[in-house]
């Protein structure tokens, strides 16, 4: 059951009409030759692959799950073959460095690929997804030798990668981690400890797995300043780069989970596993953050992908399912009842999904474009500004898109009524899969603390001002035009409110640091809405310009923008009050009196 | 994994300190002899049964699920034995009519029992829960013969009951149902058709199952005015009231669902099944509404029960799990990190659950007391007023408590971080189980339409005024006291806003009935908060009065009240805006342009 088709028109709208990526790429020497047509062709092909090869394995993968037998993990039927096709088609290499066999396409193309992969099958996508993160970390921090050994294999997809952070007693609090790395005479390290929740930690898709493992050197300082990063392959690599002896890292068991059943979530036992140091000793978290930031954006794309597929399916159902008459009289008098899409609250559920997915797409593709600017723009100032914007907005991509996705997939389920609760219809899987995205790669609370504490208050609002300036310029440019006032007025208003709220919290936090913890979650929701309001206003501008074309695509875009401002943005009225209420109502009660 | 203990202190607080039920019962002749001690003893015993017998089967029942084999359904291991103990202890009879073997206790005692049963095991509880609804429908609308045959068996729990409404093509829209009832020469009816989503439709717990089936007589008018209700036993009943021949109603299959795995959700095929008419021909929905209203309150209790158990478990975890230091300095310096309950956002997640469960308990026990008043009060005016309050507030119990429960169970899961997503820890089951409560017995959208369209606007606000008067009297009585202003001011404010909103929507609905559909869902959220604000203010009043006792229970109550007003009630600022935004943003876009 279920359906998925890549939303090509909307993706192209974002890339070309909103972001004008072809012109942007002209300012990036290494991408200057890439034109819109190439991008569209790649995305179209990727869409076919996702719909035809990956999507059909989504429900079956959920039903079957992964199998563990004495350390060997078998993925659900079809996963391995689909992965082989993925590798053969060269998809892992899409945005990778040509020096290591990559195709050198911009990040935003990869982003579009991942949106579609996640719509098609989040659990499957996590196998190549983690590999890409490992590629980025090794590309940024690996030694030449590590790059030589690992990067070609990760780029080709012959090998996959993982990130091994969490231990039973520490998830968020990595400073407590205990895994030990003993230096060996040959310059390698013997690593021992237990890691849990390792996504794609063991499986049958690839010949080898490169684990990026956080561990402590013998003389390491306590806390997060004594953590080093190691590359630990499942099979030791021969001098020729081939598969050598089995390394001392084993999958002790796999977890039984609420969702993403098709992905193996592994307990990994390291018993003197041989690894090599990545980056500098005791600075492992720095190196790992490259992977974690990539992963956080990746999780945002998981949220986006699930929102899109839940929307597509609930829309189809709402047009098909006949139930009750419209309160204003029959809309399908020839049928025994009206399709439920005529009912206002079904509309609310559909439009909420639609508004979230389209703004999320605009925002996340724009962020991917900023990453391309950061990596490749010819102007150093542009690179610096882009890096700041990416740093500022990564926690919003991760938390706002995944919170929205959980709401959206739940609305998608609700549109189906009782059938939404039945596994066969496929909607409840989206909810179960979406649930993990609010937790892993740093819970959404951690994201909100990262946003407010580190990214906003941490530099006295400097990064925030950069984004504020972008919004402000748009407001000033469009605010004088009467047809834009319905969008610009609330955008300007919420922008000012966010600024004011930021200053208030900043002041309060000086007296009591817990004020940051108390305000962070609602603050992130408000900031997310500022971003979405900005992108909806920009998309409305384009839709207004092209209205005369008569293309109903623009009419739909405009109506969705109006829905967003009328029905979703007002959530900020709640969140601002919740943020402003401060820490006192949270900490008044002693813990032992709960 | 997991834990549950009946929250006896809080239940007794609601029954005795808030509702003063002993004094209330004095005005109900048939309950006048029941004292507080008896009530407490019953609840304490029930709590033990729930914690010791029913709760241990919750996880295992979820893991195992039900089995179907050629029409025979086997429930998970232990379910049958637990049900036998339940029957032997007389729990099914608790609030039933002594004329049929019942114990004649008030409804609110049954309500307390059901809160605890649902905390312990929602899927299991649905077997006796549906039976109780069937008992109520037959008690109200059955013939003497039907009462004679069925009620003793339902009261004793030897037999169970179901409600058979939904068909593949109609759930919400019962007017479309097709199941046929052909009159037979002996006054019975031969019923044929297919019913789906029949909870507890077939199982191995009891000797017989009484299905209450909606069907059409041959000459029935189209739509909802041509639906009749029939009692259709699994086994025909012998003249002596024993088990006779197998009737023509069979379980064709059971559904595989997101949650409530331990409850059998059945496709029931009727092929000339023999039934008897309940109530009048073509007025089956009237009779069924007795059962549906009972079921809607029952679903609210499912939400309440899940909220309580999720809260208990996440609280225990938050006190135990060590992770990070408080931003204001170590709180457990002797430990490697602080327990996570020190972090403000963990507090938010715990207090949200706590505030929802305690207000939900106050509200739902109060409603149960109104049902007792409706059924048993000596004064007819009191009976009438109580009936109006129950009718008005039933959709709020159903929708508000279950929406809140879904949020609360999700927050409970989130407190566990990654462990919340792992089945072994038990938290994700609460989320999956909670999800159905927003759908069945009328989706929460249907509840909101019932509230706004039928219960509020349908009588020009007459019922609403009755509840408004209760709130208003409390506001006037307490508003003059300075210590109560932090609670009374926002309560009075939100009460006025709801009144204003009601009038606005009423005006708009006269011009366009779709305005009701557009506003209903946010309207119900606002109305629910008015109810919760009222009960939190009342509980705060009691806590203030007893503060001097030094009992920390009252300190906790007061702190939770303050949290509610500071952090949860402000949701209304959003919902009022969403309601007010009206229907235009929902219907602007033609269905075919989605």
TrEMBL record, chains A, B:
Catalytic activity annotation: 3-(methylsulfanyl)propanoyl-CoA + oxidized [electron-transfer flavoprotein] + H(+) = 3-(methylsulfanyl)acryloyl-CoA + reduced [electron-transfer flavoprotein]
Domain Acetyl-CoA dehydrogenase-like C-terminal per the UniProt entry, residue ranges: 469-589
Membrane-crossing segments per the record: none
GO molecular function: flavin adenine dinucleotide binding; oxidoreductase activity, acting on the CH-CH group of donors
Keyword Flavoprotein assigned: yes
Record EC number: 1.3.99.41
Domain of life: Bacteria
Cofactor(s) needed: FAD
Acyl-CoA dehydrogenase/oxidase C-terminal domain boundaries: 282-449
Root EC class: oxidoreductase
Keyword NAD: no
UniProt xrefs under InterPro entries: Acyl-CoA_dh-like_C_dom (IPR025878), Acyl-CoA_Oxase/DH_mid-dom (IPR006091), Acyl-CoA_Oxase/DH_mid-dom_sf (IPR046373), AcylCo_DH-like_C (IPR036250), AcylCo_DH/oxidase_C (IPR009075), AcylCoA_DH/ox_N (IPR013786), AcylCoA_DH/ox_N_sf (IPR037069), AcylCoA_DH/oxidase_NM_dom_sf (IPR009100)
All copies of domain Acyl-CoA dehydrogenase/oxidase N-terminal, residue ranges: 40-158
Gene3D superfamilies: Acyl-CoA dehydrogenase/oxidase, N-terminal domain, Butyryl-CoA Dehydrogenase, subunit A, domain 2, Butyryl-CoA Dehydrogenase, subunit A, domain 3
Ranges of residues in domain Acyl-CoA oxidase/dehydrogenase middle: 163-271
One of the Pfam families matching this protein, by short name: Acyl-CoA_dh_N
Keywords: FAD, Flavoprotein, Oxidoreductase
Main function: Involved in the assimilation of dimethylsulphoniopropionate (DMSP), an important compound in the fixation of carbon in marine phytoplankton, by mediating the conversion of 3-(methylthio)propanoyl-CoA (MMPA-CoA) to 3-(methylthio)acryloyl-CoA (MTA-CoA).
Family according to the record: Belongs to the acyl-CoA dehydrogenase family.
Name this polypeptide is given: 3-methylmercaptopropionyl-CoA dehydrogenase
């Amino acid at each position: 059951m279920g359906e998925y088709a890549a939303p090509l028109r909307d993706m192209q709208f974002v890339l070309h009409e909103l972001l004008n990526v072809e012109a942007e790429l002209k300012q990036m020497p290494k991408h200057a030759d890439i034109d819109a047509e190439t991008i569209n062709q790649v995305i179209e092909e990727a869409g076919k692959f996702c719909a035809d090869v990956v999507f059909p394995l989504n429900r079956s993968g959920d039903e079957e799950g992964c199998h563990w037998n004495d350390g060997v993990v078998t993925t659900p039927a079809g996963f391995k073959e689909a992965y082989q096709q993925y590798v053969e088609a060269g998809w892992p290499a899409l945005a990778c460095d040509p020096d290591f066999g990559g195709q050198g396409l911009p990040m935003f193309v990869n982003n579009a690929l991942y949106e579609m992969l996640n719509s098609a099958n989040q659990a499957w996508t996590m196998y190549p997804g983690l590999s890409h993160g490992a590629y980025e970390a090794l590309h940024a921090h690996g030694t030449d030798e590590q790059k030589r050994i690992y990067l070609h294999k990760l780029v080709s997809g012959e090998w996959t990668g993982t990130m091994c952070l969490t231990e039973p007693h520490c998830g968020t609090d990595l400073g407590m981690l205990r895994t030990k790395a003993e230096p060996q005479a040959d310059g390698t390290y013997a690593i021992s400890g237990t890691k849990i929740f390792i996504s794609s930690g063991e499986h049958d898709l690839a010949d080898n797995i490169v684990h990026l493992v956080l561990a402590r050197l013998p003389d390491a300082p306590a806390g997060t300043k004594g953590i080093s990063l190691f590359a630990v392959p499942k099979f030791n690599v021969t001098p020729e780069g081939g598969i050598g002896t089995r390394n001392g890292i084993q999958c002790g068991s796999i977890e039984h989970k609420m969702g993403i059943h098709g992905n193996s979530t592994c307990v990994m036992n390291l018993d003197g596993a041989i690894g090599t140091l990545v980056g500098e000793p005791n600075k492992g978290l720095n190196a790992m953050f490259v992977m974690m930031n990539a992963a956080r954006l990746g999780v945002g794309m998981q949220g986006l992908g699930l929102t899109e597929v839940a929307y597509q399916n609930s829309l189809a159902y709402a047009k098909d399912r006949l139930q009750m008459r419209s309160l204003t009289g029959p809309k399908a008098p020839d049928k025994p009842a009206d399709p439920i899409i005529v009912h206002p609250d079904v509309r609310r559920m559909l439009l909420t999904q639609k508004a979230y997915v389209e703004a999320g797409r605009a925002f996340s593709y724009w962020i991917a474009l900023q990453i391309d600017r950061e990596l490749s723009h010819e102007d150093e100032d542009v690179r610096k500004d882009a890096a700041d914007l990416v740093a500022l907005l990564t926690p919003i991509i991760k938390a706002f898109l995944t919170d929205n996705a959980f709401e959206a997939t739940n609305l998608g389920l609700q549109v189906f009524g009782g059938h939404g609760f039945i596994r066969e219809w496929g909607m409840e899987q989206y909810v179960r899969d979406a649930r993990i995205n609010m937790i892993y790669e740093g819970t959404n609370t951690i994201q909100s603390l990262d946003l407010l504490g580190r990214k906003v208050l941490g530099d006295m609002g400097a990064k925030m001002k950069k984004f504020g300036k972008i919004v402000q310029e748009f407001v000033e440019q469009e605010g004088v035009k009467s047809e834009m006032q319905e969008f610009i007025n609330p955008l300007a208003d919420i922008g000012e409110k966010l600024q004011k709220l930021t200053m208030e919290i900043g002041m309060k936090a000086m007296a009591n640091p817990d004020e940051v913890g108390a305000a962070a979650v609602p603050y992130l929701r408000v900031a997310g809405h500022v971003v979405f309001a900005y992108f909806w206003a920009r998309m409305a501008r384009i839709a207004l310009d092209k209205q005369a074309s008569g293309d109903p695509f623009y009419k739909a875009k405009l109506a969705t923008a109006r829905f967003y401002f009328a029905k979703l943005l007002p959530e900020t009225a709640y969140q601002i009050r919740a943020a402003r209420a401060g820490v006192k109502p949270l900490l008044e009660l002693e813990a032992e009196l709960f």
